[in-house]
Amino acid sequence: MGNAAPFRLHCSILGPLEVRVDDRTAIIGAPKQRLLLAILLCHANAVIPSDQLIDALWGERPPRTARKNLQVYVSGLRKIFGCRLSFEGWGYRLYADPAELDLLRFLDLARSGRAAVRAGDLAVAAELLAEAVRMWHDPPLAEFCHVPLVAKEITRSTDLFLSVYEDWVELEIELSRHVEALASLDALAPRFPSRERIAAARMTALYRCGRTSEALSHFEVLRRHLAAEMGLDPSPVLRNLYQEILKGDGRRPVGAAGHPAATRTRPIQSLANQLPRDIADFVGREHEVRRIVGEAAAVTLITGEPGIGKTALAVHVAHMLASGFPDGALVVGLRRHGGDPRATVDLQREILEAVGLNVAAVHDDDVLASVWRSWLANRKILLILDDSPDESSVRTLLPGTTASKVLVTSRSRLSGLESVTRVGLAQLSPAEGIEFLGRLIGHERVLGDLPAVRAIFERFGLSPLVLRLLGGRLAGLRHVPVGHLADRLEHSESVLDEFVAGETCLRDRFEECYNQPSWTHRPAFLALGALAGPPFSHDELVAALDGTGRSAELAIESLLEANILSVPQPAANGAEVVAQSMAYTMSPLAHRFATELRGDHRV
């Protein structure tokens, strides 16, 4: 292209609008400038009249300065697109080729795939059409769907996608990959209930998977929908397919499950959304949520001390992301009740069996891992690997491709785990603590005794678990003032036993961690119990940890790695912490537990 500028450009409109220049995202913040770009990209390589652009940007009553403002927006876009964006005398044209715009690449792949079908090369055709289908990220340009000029192109692009998708999914079934096709059809068919080719493909795939009753049921769902919405009957082609399935004339399912070591015991199922319920009173973590949701990284590691809210955050974010993972969302607990680690091969086997793969005859761990990776390949799954005990357990379960997303939670920082986005959780802020406690026991009750509430925060910390247990106690003791409970906690000889709500007990959580045979931090943890209480100076820690089996400096690093110790947040004035003033802190209640253990006869 003669007008091409000497930089790499890639634009995406088959989903959210995105522009990347030399692999960096270009920031286009002004709403009308973004809308102008969306229109130009939808009509790439065509001239859009200025009057039409003005009408799209400002509607029927544009300001007097509309044409001048349009020129300003174009001038801003030229800083990104250079001579690709030109004025043609009566309108504007944005030049792009298939390597620069996903819509054009999509159309090229569709043409090549259909040409391969005509040439009889079905395997190549399926591969090309599959690549085109994977480019689609519904809904396209959702932020502009209210603009008629864009909405028209969204409808046109969606129809193009559905046509290509139907070609691809029918090819997959023809190539006996009906199991894989069905997972995609299960997600798409309910969203486009009037598309008869999609309905026919799903009926065929269900039948070939041995699910005849579901295939017939899908026909009935379609028939009722067409009658209610359009007053129509299914087409003769679909009615004939229904009769063939009813008579058992169709081809039965054949083949293995995609890996030579695995056999299929029943049709492979989608995991679907198996997330536990989101916590309705989730408070705070706005920065962490934005970071996890906005990150393109395939693996995010969430770490922090016990009770800091790692799992709650992972589940909360997973509910926000789940719609983008049509092959399912799942929480995998990496520890048994009581805290013992679960073998990753057992977890792999459990999940593979759950989706219909018989791996009972697979006894080699490496082969099982290969089956696991093969099953995950080309699937979009959202996995939460919860409470990971070590780095190796995470590595074994990670997908080999980046189509899926994994959220890992761990008490340890897992510093040796490579290529992950790290999110470390600190305690809630006092304002977040007040909001959280208010949701649990009522805001009037909290605001009516703020000095007592703040005293509790100062003495016992602001971890979500501590606040939830405290709120659970107070919610069941509506007649007890917050100040009364604060005094009781201050003078309690066994304050850990006060943090109990229902079947959840803070002491049990601490003991579960401490009693693990693999827990290597006992000597150092007990040494912390001899100190007066956090925060600790560096010199205090060095003196206390000397003689615990390793050098004091290494012991401090080990406690930081395990999130037993943490470094206080920087001062508000942003002053750097120098070596002479290095300080460390820990959960006040974890320190109380260490003090108790040190004086206990069991130590």
Automatic annotation (TrEMBL):
Keywords: DNA-binding, Transcription, Transcription regulation. PROSITE patterns: OMPR_PHOB. Belongs to the AfsR/DnrI/RedD regulatory family. PANTHER family: TRANSCRIPTIONAL REGULATOR REDD, TRANSCRIPTIONAL REGULATOR REDD-RELATED. Residues 1-96 form the OmpR/PhoB-type domain. The keyword Transcription applies. Residues 1-96 bind DNA. It holds the Pfam family BTAD. It comes from Sphaerisporangium dianthi. The keyword Transcription regulation applies. InterPro entries: AfsR-DnrI-RedD_regulator, BTAD, NB-ARC, OmpR/PhoB-type_DNA-bd, P-loop_NTPase, Sig_transdc_resp-reg_C-effctor, TPR-like_helical_dom_sf, WH-like_DNA-bd_sf. This is BTAD domain-containing putative transcriptional regulator. CDD domains: BTAD.
